[in-house]
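Lecture notes, unit on protein representations.

Consider one protein chain, 152 amino acids long.
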Amino acid sequence: MRPHNLNAELRIPGDLIYLRPVRSFIRELALNLDFSSDRTSEIELAFDEIFSNAVEHGSSGSESQISIYCTSTEDTMQITISDRGPGKGPNTKWIDAWSDALREKVKLGTERGHGLLLVRHLIDRISIEPNSIGGIDVHLVIYKEEQPARNI
């Protein structure tokens, strides 16, 4: 029988070249924790969006670092993606984009800014907050079984 309480920590250079292998790690972890293939796909897509944002908005290139913390219980997987900021523009862009996603405000005529809205609908609980090193922490909580009403 597999243990249900697992912890993993990864530190990745702030470069999109690492997205694919880290996304594969997250996928395999979710599958090994007995998440359904549908829930695993949702986790993978949400992680992809958040990691990409952390690289673009919260890192100043491959010399900076993105930290990924994964924990699990019998019923949940929790992922925290932490960047060191500042990347392209101030960290308020993250907070503003999250505020827009909460209000389901979408900027028409652009492909930008839809990722957090998508994540909001895929993940059971998400929070975004500044961290002590000048970056942003994004906390994702995913239940094994989809919850009837998602808490944000």
